[in-house]
Each structure stands twice: as C-alpha cells, then as structure tokens.
Amino acid sequence: MFRRMSEDTSAIQVCIAGTGSYLPERILTNAELAATVDTSDEWILSRTGIRERRIAAAGEFTSHMATHAARKALEQAGLAAEDVELIIVATITPDTPTPATACYVQQSLGASRAVAFDISAACSGFLYAMKISKRLITSGAFTNALIIGAEKLSAVTNWEDRSTCVLFGDGAGAAVLRIAAPEEGSILATEMGTDGNLTHLLNIPGGGTACPITSENVGQHLGTLTMMGKEVFKHAVNRMKEAAEKVIERSGLQPEDIACVIPHQANLRIIDAIADRLAVPNERVFVNLDKYGNTSAAAVAIAFDEANRSGAFKRGDHIVLVVFGAGLTWAAAAIRW
Ligand code: UT7
Q1: In the predicted model, is pLDDT for residue 334 greater than 50?
Q2: Checking phi first, is residue 140 left (phi over 0); if not, alpha (psi -120 to 50) or beta?
Q3: Domain 14-179 has CATH 3.40.47.10
Q4: What is the CA(236)–ligand 1 centre distance, in A?
Q5: Position 11 confidence tier, pLDDT thresholds 50, 70, 90
Q6: pLDDT digit string (tens) for 268-289?
Q7: In the structure, which protein residues have their CB atom closer than 6 angstroms to any atom of ligand 1?
C-alpha cells in the first residue's frame, strides 16, 4: 500500500542561502486596461487589490527573467554559477515546449555542472520545487539547488476577457537552497497537495495534445487562461489555510510564533481571509500584488525575495510560505530563517 512520506528524518538540514527577483520594466496600470476592456480601476482594486502589473517586452522570455532573478539569488547566497548542482524552474509559460526553460537558464548562467529541469504546478510550482529540492539535498543526491518561479503570463492572457486580463502579470523569483550549518536556520516542514478533479476550474484549454491550436481554431483564444474565479476563490482559502496549519503544527509552532506569512499573490481578499483564519495579524502578512498582480509560480518567489530584502523577517524568525493554483494544487513551507 502507498504510504505518504512523512517530514524528513534526515540529519541533513537545508537552508535558504539567498533570494532574488526580477520584474520587467513596463508597468501596465488599471487605468490603461480600462481604456481597452470594460473595467475600471475601482472594480479591479476593490475586487482584487491590484493597482498595476509588469509586462515583459516582446523579446523578453521566461528564461531571461528567470536568469536575472537567479543571478541575484546566487549573489546573495555567495554561490558561483559553476557550483550550482541542480536547477528547477517552475513555470506554465516555458520559452519552448521542449527543452525545459531550466536548460536555457543553465546555459545563460554558465551553470554547466547543474542538472536542470522544469516542473509544471501552476502557482504552486515554486513551493513544489522547494520541497522536491529539499528532499534531493537531504537524500544526499545534491548539496545545493537553485529554484526559480518564472512566468510570462502576458503571453497566455486573453486581452479581450476582462474577467482574467486584469489579474495577471510577468516576473520571476528565485532562491538558493543548500545544506545548512548547525547554527543556521532551515526549512522545518513542507506540504503539497493536488486535486485533479478540479482541473476544469482554471486552465489553458488549447495548445497541448488534447486540443492543438490549428488554422481552424486559431482565433478562439484557446491558448489563454480561463478561470471560474468564484469557485477557485473558495478552494484557495480552504486549501491554503489547511496547508499553512499543517506546516505550522509539524514545526511545533503556534500561529503567534510566525513573524511573516508570505502567501500566493492572487487576490487581497483571499490573503485577508487566510490571515483571519490562521489568526495571524494582517501586518505580519506580506503583500505586493498591488504592484505586480498574479504572476503564478513567480508570485510567492518574488514576494519572498522582497520580504527578505525589506527586512520583513530576521535571523531566527519563523516564516510560512503558502500557495495555491491550477490543478488544483497547493503547497506550504515553514522556515526558521
Ligand atoms: O492564481 C491562481 C489562483 N487564482 C485565484 O486565486 C483567483 C480567485 N478568484 C478571484 O480572485 C475572484 O473570483 C476574481 C477576482 C477573479 C473575480 O472576483 P469576484 O468577486 O469573484 O467576481 P465575479 O467573477 O463573481 O464577478 C462579479 C461581477 C460580474 O458581473 P455580474 O454578473 O454580477 O453582472 C462580472 O461580470 O463582476 C463582473 N466582472 C467585472 N467587472 C468589471 C468580472 N470581471 C470584471 C472586471 N471589471 N475586470
């Protein structure tokens, strides 16, 4: 019988040695969107909390943004690119269907020793990558890993659909994991889950083998994101709350011990509902979706880096990252910084 793996019992502890992020220059405001689709700054701000988002340039690919974010994370970690052993890129907007975006990143970083591959877990991808790489390090297979969440969602957005085009943006975030010294912080607990019964709630229907884009259907926006927003909202709140509670409990912590919660940046109302249900005060919850919108796998990674660099937590603090996305998928991590 299948037995679910429990939290690591390995003597090896894994820490986050550095974080980085990158946002494209171009800012697209709510007012600009209101000039092209039937929406308003007031609706977008009150229903989502988003004020503006970043849009990558035409020649700026997911791997380019991923590489910029990765360089900053490596610099903070004091790790040379040629010493990186594993690169995982979490994305639903790869440069090409194959090879993996991680291979382009390996090349552009000059990380020639690294094994590199992508994972597809939508907005949950960065924390899936964290759990996978932590396990690969504690198993002894690697001593470090570079994990990246990177998305060019503007390339898979239907700019005529007001129910989705106001939500998404582009960007990348990265973190370096490595074996921790005894006095250093570490990743205490991780959790991830999937419910494949709910694939229909949030997806890109076309462009894969189920529905290739052909000359007949090319104008139908089948290669863009569709979402049943209200349903997704409900599941997001419940699943993120449960996942966060699990990692807090498994770390032997109480909600009041958490200095900073870094949630997926999709909707301020979702974030507020989670803070409320976890009984964590709003001022301990990191929010930057007003500036960037929902950048899927990149969102929590960018927020993690901004929280880190802005001093939202300090050495020895306990932090919780929690995410939710298409699949449906969800994940959480508790870290002693
Ligand atoms: O990252 C993956 C996870 N994704 C999420 O977590 C997203 C979860 N869902 C949400 O964040 C919210 O459901 C949305 C922000 C997507 C939508 O908010 P809502 O409060 O659930 O609105 P709704 O979809 O129920 O729409 C309410 C009304 C509708 O009009 P009627 O039928 O009441 O007349 C929509 O047509 O708002 C209308 N509407 C808009 N109006 C102006 C929908 N989009 C817009 C818009 N501007 N952009």
Answers
A1: yes
A2: left
A3: yes
A4: 14
A5: confident
A6: 999 999 999 999 999 999 999 9
A7: 39, 43-44, 47-48, 123, 162-163, 166, 202, 229-230, 232-233, 236, 266-267, 270, 294, 324-325
Q: Which two tokens stand for residue 243?
A: 């996942």
Which of 214-223, 269-278, 293-302, 311-320 is the least confident region? Answer: 214-223
Ligand 1 pocket test, pick from 233, 234, 300 with the greatest ligand atom count within 8 Å of Cβ, gives 233
Pairwise CA distance, residues 306 & 309, whole Å:
5
**15 is an active site residue:** no
Q: Please state the pTM of the whole predicted model.
A: 0.96
Dump pLDDT digits (tens) for 44-74: 999 999 999 999 999 999 999 999 999 999 9
Our answer to whether residue 264 is catalytic in this structure is yes
Where do the domains of the chain lie? 14-179, 187-336
Which atom from ligand 1 is nearest to the alpha carbon of 269?
A: 11
In whole angstroms, give the CA distance from residue 299 to residue 265: 6
Q: Which of 15, 68, 103, 123 is catalytic?
A: 123
The DSSP annotation for 288-330 comes to -HHHH-B-THHHHHHHHHHHHHTTSS-TT-EEEEEEEETTTEE
The alpha carbon of 4 and the centre of ligand 1 are apart by a number of angstroms equal to 36
Instruction: List residues bridging with 321 in a β-sheet.
Output: 262, 333
The catalytic position among 144, 288, 294, 308 is: 294
CATH topology of domain 187-336: Peroxisomal Thiolase; Chain A, domain 1 (3.40.47)
Q: Catalytic site residue 318?
A: no
User: How far does the centroid of ligand 1 lie from the alpha carbon of residue 329, in Å?
Assistant: 20
Contact (CB, 8 A) for 288 and 271: no
